[in-house]
Amino acid sequence: MQSSIYSDHITLITQSRLPAQSYMAGVLAELNHPFVWCSVDELLSAPIQSHRCLLLDYQDGSTIRRGLSPQSIPTTSCDIVIYNAPQRIRTEALLSLGRLRGIFYTDDTHSVIRQGLQRILCGQIVIPKTICHQLLNYYQEQYPAPINTGTALSPRESQVLRELLSGHSNLKIADRFCISEVTVKSHLHNIYRKLEVKNRLQAIAWAKRHLSTC
């Protein structure tokens, strides 16, 4: 199938089941929009950027991504929609899905999915509020607003200082921000130097005085 066809269709990625065995067959049949079935091998035969919308079964997501390796799902071209999703999804899994524009849960009805797909095709985003909050919290933690301390603390150093004030250990801070303990120690060294304090306790005391109302 030529890539130009994909640009006007919803592309349903299949893994092991025959297309007719997927409950999405009934949903897409009710949707007044052209769609095509596509295996991972067929997907690799044409640039992913040529697709308008990729529809993935979340339960097959990790297998499909391995099949796509080393070609990654693009983040700025085609829309990604997942269905058959659980109520709880790890943030890392959400971020790996590229230009995510829709999420449908395992218990969503055909009508809910069909109407959601219609909205996505019109340029809207159909993602549950809980997932939006989850992603917003992630980005707020990763890219916090600088703390107005009167010092030259970087955004990450400001984060680490907040974590110190909360009583978290170096290991906890490292896990929270997905960095190594060595990197945490480097941030602490810079914080002590910039705040002109000698140790962790003094940094915490400084934070209590200056950040308690921030």
UniProtKB/TrEMBL annotation:
Record-annotated HTH luxR-type domain positions: 146-211
Cross-referenced InterPro entries: Sig_transdc_resp-reg_C-effctor, Tscrpt_reg_LuxR_C, WH-like_DNA-bd_sf
Source organism, top-level taxon: Bacteria
PROSITE patterns: HTH_LUXR_1, HTH_LUXR_2
Keyword match Transcription: yes
UniProt keyword annotations, A-Z: DNA-binding, Transcription, Transcription regulation
Protein name: Response regulator transcription factor
